[in-house]
Amino acid sequence: MRRDTIYDRDLDRVPANHQPLTPLAYLDRAARVFPDHVAVIHGDLRRSYAELYARARRLASALAARGIGRGDTVAVLLANTPAMIECHYGVPMTGAVLNTLNTRLDSAALAFCLDHGEAKVLITDREFSRIAGPALEQAGVTPLVIDYDDPEHTGPGERLGSLDYEALLAEGDPAHDWAMPDDEWDAISLNYTSGTTGDPKGVVYHHRGAALLALGNVVTGGLAQHPVYLWTLPMFHCNGWCFPWTLSIVAGTHVCLRQVRADAMYRLMAEHGVTHLCGAPIVMSLLLNAPEAERRPLPHRVAFFTAAAPPPEAVLSGMAEAGFAVTHLYGLTESYGPAVVNAWHDAWDALPPDEQAAKKARQGVRYPVLEGLDVRDPETMEPVPADGTTLGEVMMRGNVVMRGYLKNPTATRAAFAGGWFHTGDLGVKHADGYVQLKDRSKDIIISGGENISSIEVEDALFKHPAVAAAAVVAKPDERWGETPCAFVELRPGGQASAEDLVAWCRERLASYKLPRHVIFGELPKTSTGKVQKYLLRERAREG
Amino acid sequence: MRRDTIYDRDLDRVPANHQPLTPLAYLDRAARVFPDHVAVIHGDLRRSYAELYARARRLASALAARGIGRGDTVAVLLANTPAMIECHYGVPMTGAVLNTLNTRLDSAALAFCLDHGEAKVLITDREFSRIAGPALEQAGVTPLVIDYDDPEHTGPGERLGSLDYEALLAEGDPAHDWAMPDDEWDAISLNYTSGTTGDPKGVVYHHRGAALLALGNVVTGGLAQHPVYLWTLPMFHCNGWCFPWTLSIVAGTHVCLRQVRADAMYRLMAEHGVTHLCGAPIVMSLLLNAPEAERRPLPHRVAFFTAAAPPPEAVLSGMAEAGFAVTHLYGLTESYGPAVVNAWHDAWDALPPDEQAAKKARQGVRYPVLEGLDVRDPETMEPVPADGTTLGEVMMRGNVVMRGYLKNPTATRAAFAGGWFHTGDLGVKHADGYVQLKDRSKDIIISGGENISSIEVEDALFKHPAVAAAAVVAKPDERWGETPCAFVELRPGGQASAEDLVAWCRERLASYKLPRHVIFGELPKTSTGKVQKYLLRERAREG
């Protein structure tokens, strides 16, 4: 490789031509270009971009005055509120790292996160004092506690500290001259994985990745100027897929929402002309199963970005009829949220509904800002053939992959072995290059030496009109090693027996894939709407 | 600054989480995701993204086999043809640097560029043999000459070398396993400034900046999936404002065009459903002044991005009536083309046409991918007040500013003095932060100690119904130092005397700003449509 060409002389990085990539620059721009545009709606509250920026600068200035700076962790336990948006800017403006805590963790798990992240500050919503209080008692660290008392929260909960969030902001300077990070590789946020097994791992994001994924969201979502975005996805989850930063690029309006309820969603969509929202499949179910009295006509076709599980055909057609345009995304905490999109081909519009649903169920292709996506054999690192059937591990590489796991070099090295991030998800590559998940490694059921995809069995169950949700796990079996065990949640008023469902599946699946056991009841879910299969696995073992 | 925080340990850049930013990755993605979508239209030719990518890889492979690699300059003298698009990918895939030469230079200037850039290869369109032949004779370098014989060119010109472009591609491997650049700071292209004064300077772009400006175009232009883009802007000009790379992000269709003529533009827009085009104001004039027989109805509202000069009110309203949505951009060769946008506020739609035109005439605000834009005193580097009247120099900083001028550290240092890129354009900052050009430093006329903006006088002249184009320069004057001298091109059939025009201006300008001389005739323009004021200055001095 030639290393001293004419282009290697006197053409160096200087401040004029090289600045750190950071999403913080997007808010600075939005506030300058569209100062009066509404940035935040929350109940009756309206805040312009000038006001949002001023409040973020106040926050940064007040935190800096209290000694918070580069590499300090600022933890927050907040619902989807204006304060949560402000923290996404004000905290990293000091050089500190934003750690958004899952509001549905128990106090022991919260205490673990505070200690592991070495939190210097905890900003906590009054609603969550019941878990935050004991967590602070259990934790070894003693962060500065700041209470956020949101007027929109009228339920129980109490203040924990001596300092109020608004009082902290009042200490700050609305014109604070904050500095861009010295290095775009600097950490911007810390996200603990929801941890279906073992201790949570601390995923570290950097300014470069957050800036790029935010651009990627605009391109992939086709966001025009001034979208109106409804906060149904928790901002504590992968920093709300980076949408707190994304919206500043296009000067969009954040519509806050403390609790995901169908009536509030329909009302806010109608009142504010919502154009986009994101959410797990559970949010689509909520919208579709809402009683007529809670519904309101949509203002126009609303873009809905979903991830976590492929949308079943019935849900997709229901959403289309209800006026939503659903885009299926895929990603992990480790990839800043979504980094893969089910890019739609116009020609597919002509396919029959079931074939469209089959296309839509595929996870798809990389975002333009993710440099590599592949399905590989994790042992040999060889790509699997693009045959739609050979299983391999889904792998990613690029600038929207995390820096690594905090204080866990062993896990980081394992995740990045062979030059790619190992997602832990098993999948196939179709002939057209689209990736489709088949299962997480541990969700594959091996029965009589045959691999059974639990997703495939769940899909078959989901198509039954009485089924609201279904999860299939392995049940140990003396003869077969494992057999599929189905947990099924029926729709209100829906009726089906175990025999009905097995007969239904028999028409759709090879016989070795049929569930040998069907158990009815509500499925246990994580705070982000993922079914907790490890609990079901325990039940299957016991039952 | 804390330098050893928990975030500074064991969270390093590795291939899984850090890849060079490069626009080359966009074509790879488009070809994988939308292999069959039409990438290039040229006459009757249609090429899909799979074909475009295969041809770019053939080109890269063939050049590499002939020893072309990192830091080598590959010069091209091409019209807006499929080969030109292929070169934007195939050349940098080898690590080499693409130098797109202005097809309207004379042979001496071409020879200068070939020598200064140390060209190893010249790919040249048969049409330009008349200048390329002598340039090769005059140049000291002896590049490998490759002839591109475009079937759409049926005019004169001959082959110069022994190697044909298609024969070169036939040597290459369509599945060539090219490598991303090692470093996103590596040069991707070399653009010689059009040089209204002195020798051209070689502006060096890098992969990082090109990748980011391409994303910025998608965001700023609101490009959805599959736009259809008409090539009216020369690709030799700032790499066509990076649109050869931009379109791959959204899998758009390039509609090639060798010569900018109204009939061809209208025909192609109608036939192919063109959604976007870019061009200097001269292109808008061409469209608006086209005879009825050359016009065709537009397929829908067409987005037109213009730069180089603020669009006059009459042109704006004419374009709106004709069905175009005009966006005013601003930039320089040094900023990868446009890096500033006249971001429109919805509220301005309610203003009367003249006030809308006044808003639209402002250059505006930074692209989301430009980190800094300001108007400053070039001596003290102090920002001017945002009062709309205090003149300063427009300055930029960020990742879409060039690496520098090739082999010219003195000019590079001067351009980047004080941590900002000095554009050489004089302007003001309005109360809302929008920047407006008043003049290039050398275009300011100083008369009796007062600064006169030549743009202001030109604007006044342009509003006269008989005026097609106007340029105002300084004429040396014994008493006043300088006085404004106007060169005016009348519309076909338009009639106005010098006295008429001065009287017209008197109603609109302070008397010291009135042109003292008015000279009628066609204005000399550069190949990119800029009026060559240095020629007018000579005439004014002599006349």
Automatic annotation (TrEMBL), chains A, B:
UniProt keywords, alphabetically: Fatty acid metabolism, Ligase, Lipid metabolism
Keyword hit for Lipid metabolism: yes
Molecular functions (GO terms): ligase activity
Residue ranges occupied by any AMP-binding enzyme C-terminal domain in the UniProt entry: 456-530
UniProt cross-references to PROSITE patterns, sorted A to Z: AMP_BINDING
Matching InterPro entries: AMP-bd_C, AMP-bd_C_sf, AMP-binding_CS, AMP-dep_synth/lig_dom, ANL_N_sf
Segments forming domain AMP-dependent synthetase/ligase: 27-406
Signal peptide as annotated in the record: none
Pfam families, sorted: AMP-binding, AMP-binding_C
Lipid metabolism in keyword set: yes
Protein family: Belongs to the ATP-dependent AMP-binding enzyme family.
Protein's name in the database: Long-chain-fatty-acid--CoA ligase
Biological source species: Methylobacterium trifolii
Phylogenetic lineage: Bacteria, Pseudomonadati, Pseudomonadota, Alphaproteobacteria, Hyphomicrobiales
